[in-house]
C-alpha cells in the first residue's frame, strides 16, 4: 500500500521542519502560555500531531507527561532524537481507536493545522471522548476557514514537498460541533488577526489584545479551540 500523501509530505520535510516554522514562533509561544495554564506539572497529555516535538518538549520540560503521536515516522524520528524518553507512536489521528493508547489523559492537543489535513474527524472525535477524562481538555489549533473566505466545510489544497495535501478548513463553531455531545466549548482565541503569522515583531500588543475578543478572535489565520470533556 502506498503511504498517505500527508505522511509522504511530512516525512519529506522533517529535516527542515523546525527551521521552516521558526518565523511563526510567536504563535507557538502564545499557545504555550495557555497550555501552561491548562496542564500543570504532573498532567498526562496526548499530542496527536506531535511532529518534531516542539510542543512536546516544552510541556515535558515543565514536568507534563506527554505521549507523542504522529502519522509521519520521519517527524517522530526527529522528536526521538531530541527527547528519547518521550513515548512515541506512529498513528493516524483518524484511526486512533486502532492505536495502542490507554487513557485517561488530562488533555489531548493538536497544533499548527495538524487536524486540517484530516478529511474526516469523526473517528478522532470518538477516540477523544474515550481517551480524555471527564473535565479534561481538548486543545485544537487549526487554520481558519473564515479568514480564507471559503464556504462551509471549505477545502484547500496545499502543496508540501511537491505533494498535494487536501486541507479541510473549519470555523470555530463548525469544529466545536464535531465533538458534541461528549465535549462542550470552553474558549476560542485567534492568532494572526493583524500580525502575519511569520512576522516576529509587528502588532504584538494589539494582536494580544484582539486575540480573545468575541468578534476579532474568529478572524485570525489560526484559531485555538478549547473543549471540556463532559462528565
Describe the structure.
The chain has 231 residues and is an alpha/beta fold. The protein has a single domain (5-229), classed as Vaccinia Virus protein VP39 (Rossmann fold, 3-Layer(aba) Sandwich), CATH 3.40.50.150. Helices cover 32% and strands 26% of the residues. The strands form 2 sheets. A 7-stranded mixed β-sheet has the order 3-2-1-4-5-9-8, sandwiched between helices. The radius of gyration is 16 Å and the shape is globular. The N and C termini lie far apart (40 Å).
Characteristics of this structure?
26% strand; Rossmann fold; single chain; 231 residues; alpha/beta; 7-stranded mixed sheet; two-stranded antiparallel ribbon; 9 strands
Map the helices and strands.
Blueprint: H1 5-13, H2 17-21, H3 25-38, E1 44-47, H4 54-61, E2 65-70, H5 73-82, E3 88-90, E4 105-110, H6 122-131, E5 132-143, H7 145-148, E6 155-160, E7 163-168, H8 172-178, E8 183-191, H9 204-210, E9 222-229
Parallel strand pairs: 1-2, 1-4, 2-3, 4-5
Antiparallel strand pairs: 5-9, 6-7, 8-9
Amino acid at each position: 500500500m502506498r503511504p498517505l500523501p500527508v505522511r509522504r509530505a511530512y516525512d519529506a520535510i522533517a529535516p527542515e521542519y523546525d527551521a521552516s516554522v521558526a518565523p511563526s514562533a510567536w504563535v507557538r509561544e502564545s499557545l504555550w502560555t495557555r497550555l501552561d495554564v491548562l496542564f500543570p506539572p504532573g498532567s498526562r497529555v496526548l499530542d496527536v500531531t506531535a511532529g518534531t516535538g516542539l510542543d512536546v518538549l516544552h510541556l515535558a520540560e515543565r514536568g507534563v507527561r506527554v505521549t507523542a503521536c504522529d502519522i509521519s515516522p520521519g517527524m517522530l524520528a526527529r522528536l526521538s532524537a531530541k527527547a528519547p524518553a518521550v513515548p512515541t507512536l506512529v498513528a493516524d489521528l483518524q484511526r486512533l481507536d486502532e492505536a495502542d493508547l490507554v487513557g485517561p489523559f488530562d488533555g489531548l492537543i493538536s497544533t499548527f493545522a495538524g487536524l486540517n489535513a484530516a478529511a474526516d474527524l469523526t473517528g478522532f472525535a470518538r477516540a477523544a471522548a474515550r481517551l480524555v477524562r471527564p473535565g479534561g481538555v481538548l486543545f485544537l489549533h487549526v487554520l481558519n476557514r473564515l479568514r480564507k473566505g471559503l464556504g462551509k466545510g471549505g477545502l484547500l489544497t496545499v502543496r508540501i514537498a511537491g505533494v498535494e495535501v487536501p486541507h479541510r478548513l473549519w470555523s470555530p463553531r463548525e469544529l466545536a460541533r464535531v465533538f458534541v455531545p461528549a465535549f462542550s466549548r470552553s474558549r476560542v482565541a485567534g492568532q494572526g488577526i493583524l500580525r502575519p503569522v511569520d512576522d516576529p515583531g509587528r502588532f504584538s500588543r494589539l494582536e494580544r489584545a484582539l486575540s480573545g475578543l468575541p468578534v476579532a478572535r474568529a478572524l485570525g489565520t489560526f484559531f485555538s479551540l478549547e473543549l471540556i470533556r463532559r462528565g
